[in-house]
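During the reporting period the student researcher (J.K.) took over the structure-prediction task from the postdoctoral fellow and processed the backlog of single-chain submissions. One of the processed entries is reproduced below for the supervisory committee.
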Amino acid sequence: MNVIIKECNYNDILELRRNVMYPEKDLEYVKVENDQDKSGNTIHLGLYENENEKPISIVSLFLSKEENEMQFRKFATKVDCQNKGYGTMLLSYVINYAKTNSIKRIWCNARTEKSDFYIKKFNFNPTNQKYIKDGREFIILERTL
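J.K. obtained the following C-alpha cells:
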C-alpha cells in the first residue's frame, strides 16, 4: 500500500472531521481551539493514497513545547476506509514524529468505545479522567515516550 502522509489543507480536515465524527453537525461545530494557531504549535496531518486527492485519514497535533507533550485530536478515517490499516499508519507516524521531536508525553481524548484501539495497538494507558460530551463518553489516554 503506497500512501503519503503530509500536512493537510484545513478545509479538508474540517470536512472529514464532520463527515466521520459528527455528520449531523455543521463545519463550525468541529472546529477546536487553536486549530488555526500560527505559531507552529498546531499541525494538521492527512494520509493520502494519491497526493492530488482528499485525505483518507486525518489528525490534528497540538504541541506544548513548554511541557514537552503533544495532544492529538480529531483523529478520523473515512468510514469506507476504516479497518484497512490507514489509521494505524497515521497514528504510527504521529508517534514517530513525537519521538523524533523529543516529545515525552502524547495524549488524547478518546471515545470510550474506541479506547481499545489505542491501548492494545499503541500501548496508551487509560487515566481516571472521563467525561461525557454530546451523549458520548470520553476517556483521556496517555503514553510516555
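The committee noted the following: The chain has a mean pLDDT of 93.
J.K. will present the remaining backlog at the next meeting.
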